[in-house]
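Lecture notes, unit on binding sites. The following record was shown on slide 14. It pairs a sequence with 7,8-dihydrobiopterin.
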Amino acid sequence: METGLDLTGQAFERLPDPSSEVFTAPLKRPPHVGEDWLEPAQRVYGADEHAVWDDLFARQMEVLPGRAASAFLAGLDKLDLGRGGVPEFARLSRDLGRLTGWSVVPVPMLIPDHVFFWHLANRRFPAGNFIRTRAAFDYIEEPDVFHDVFGHVPMLADPTYADYMQAYGRAGWKAMRYNRLKALGALYWYTVEFGLIEEAGGLRAYGAGILSGPSEAVFALEARSPNRIYLNVDRVMRTDYVIDDLQPTYFVIESLADLYHQTVERDFDRLYRGLGPGFTYANTAVIDIDNVHSRGTLEYHLRGGRKSGARPV
Ligand code: HBI
Ligand code: FE
């Protein structure tokens, strides 16, 4: 059976070379990093930078208990991410390696999709090396070490999620072959960055974009504005997304195993053949086939969102 992620014979150890038709963001590689975009070593942070980590950590812990997925909270605990200061990647990689075989490697900035996918396919998580300044405490565009390590790494301590992320990285090869990286990027966005999970105690967040920021956990779980729709991979890969505001729609998984199976057991060849180059659905849309958890009023977005100073209700 040809499944979506059956890429038998693919040499995942070798950095892929995307064909010239594949769109890749025009990122300028800093001269001190090689083709793999890895920093030679993690930065040495100053006392003020360690203090930024500690303050961000404390702020998130005010909101996350009862809102973050239990796998996330368990990961924070297992990796002892609250011991104080920016975690050392070497030690984190050793602990994570024992748990799920993943490591954390430093990168200078956003890296090209195919390089990012290649690291994931080899169970390496590329994490931003720098930490935001106090001036950019609430919101930054580029992923820093707090977003990447606090937001993403705890979930990688969960074996099912760890396998999902590797499978996702491997899926990048097929997406490149069909020139559908944008669609695969939407799946990342609505799961890894902004995913919600249904737990016995109610909805929780497992997406790093929600868990590493000050206000989105409350909005995503408790506000009346956003739609919450059960994840359907085909549908999500056709859905547009915003990167600079709270999400109008969140997608809900029933379990991490549900996420893994929906992705790994999908016929991605068939999906990509039927997929146009652009997105079909607006990020506010609720469509006929949706299995809706709760339909939102969308009032936050209808009032113009962040740029209009709308209240996130
Ligand atoms: N680079 N450093 C970094 N971090 C990311 O999360 C990242 C990236 N490059 C590409 C990328 N993500 C996208 O491919 C995914 O968001 C789909
Ligand atoms: Fe991220």
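Take-home: The CA atoms of residues 43 and 308 lie 37 Å apart.
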